[in-house]
Please model this.
Amino acid sequence: MGKSATVPDDRPGIEAPVLADVRLSINGTEHELTIDTRTSLLDLLREHLDLTGAKKGCDHGQCGACTILIDGRRANGCLALAVAHDGAEIVTVEGLADGDELHALQSAFIEHDAFQCGYCTPGQLCSAAGMLTEARAGWPSAVTPANGASSDRAVELTDEEIRERMNGNLCRCGAYANIVPAIADAAGR
Ligand code: FES
Ligand code: FES
Model:
């Protein structure tokens, strides 16, 4: 069980925050926390649990640096209120590897030199992990041909598909030229 956290705020003139209890499974560990109801999942991870893998780039849903997996689906942690996900299973970049064995995407990013400063990389990895699941399930994107998607057939991940599906994850270093082949490699293309 993880530690409990509260948000004390006794500054004069500041109204006491509304607190709520949440239970979350984060990278396989159960956590019970008492938090300010305005707390995003990103802040809960970073400020309350010291899980700083997910990054705060914009805090406005614009950059993807905070991408995590919520019940297997990728999402921007900065836009997700923690209280709205009580009982959810969260996976962050810290939970992608299996012990000492890196996730295939992590290995591919290293092999393809798919980062420079690395700030966007946790979000890129979690987003790509969610994206691969979506493509395998046959979910179409805006560039999928009309006959290219079905619930019983994986979408073929061309470079165009990968770029389209990853367009919510910005890289200020412009490492896209290596990120795309890294994801294609991990996808087994
Ligand atoms: S920090 Fe969440 S999208 Fe930028
Ligand atoms: S590697 Fe620097 S922002 Fe992407």
Q: What stands out?
A: The chain has two domains: 19-95, 104-186. The first strand starts at residue 19 and ends at 26. The mean pLDDT is 93. The longest helix spans residues 121-136.
